[in-house]
């Protein structure tokens, strides 16, 4: 939303990767890091300094979505089962309930 209403000014004088003076052409990322193209190489789609953090966040989101899906499956099977204990035992055995309960407790 801020990008739609405010201009972003980039005034970096050094390449965030090499520390050398920023040479043109340069690549500027929304995180504020700037790089000389020759330092960046082919990886100009994402900031190499912030990419590991972004991947971690994406992995956590993926894991949470998968956990929610497993939780839905658990409750559906539990509701439709004549023997709820076997469903609970199966999900505990697969370690799914441990991950779901850990996530909901924190």
Automatic annotation (TrEMBL):
Q: Where is the Vacuolar protein sorting protein 11 C-terminal domain?
A: 54-98
Report the subcellular localization.
Answer: Membrane
> Transmembrane: is it a keyword of this entry?
no
Q: Which InterPro entries match?
A: VPS11_C
The entry's cellular-component GO terms read: endosome; HOPS complex
GO MF, any single term: protein-macromolecule adaptor activity
- A biological process from GO: organelle fusion
Keywords (A to Z) from UniProt: Membrane, Metal-binding, Zinc, Zinc-finger
User: In the UniProt record, does the keyword Membrane occur?
Assistant: yes
Q: What is the protein's major site of localization?
A: membrane
Superkingdom of this entry's organism? Eukaryota
Give the protein name, as stated in the record. Answer: Vacuolar protein sorting protein 11 C-terminal domain-containing protein
């Amino acid at each position: 939303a801020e990008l739609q209403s405010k201009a972003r000014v980039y005034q970096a004088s050094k390449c965030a990767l090499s520390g050398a003076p920023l040479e043109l052409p340069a690549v500027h990322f929304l995180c504020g890091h700037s790089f000389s193209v020759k330092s960046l190489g082919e990886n100009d789609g994402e900031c190499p300094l912030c990419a590991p953090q972004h991947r971690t966040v994406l992995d956590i989101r993926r894991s949470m979505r998968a956990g929610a899906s497993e939780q839905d499956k658990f409750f559906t099977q539990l509701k439709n089962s004549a023997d709820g204990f076997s469903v609970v035992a199966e999900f505990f055995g697969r370690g799914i309930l441990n991950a779901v309960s850990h996530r909901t407790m924190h």
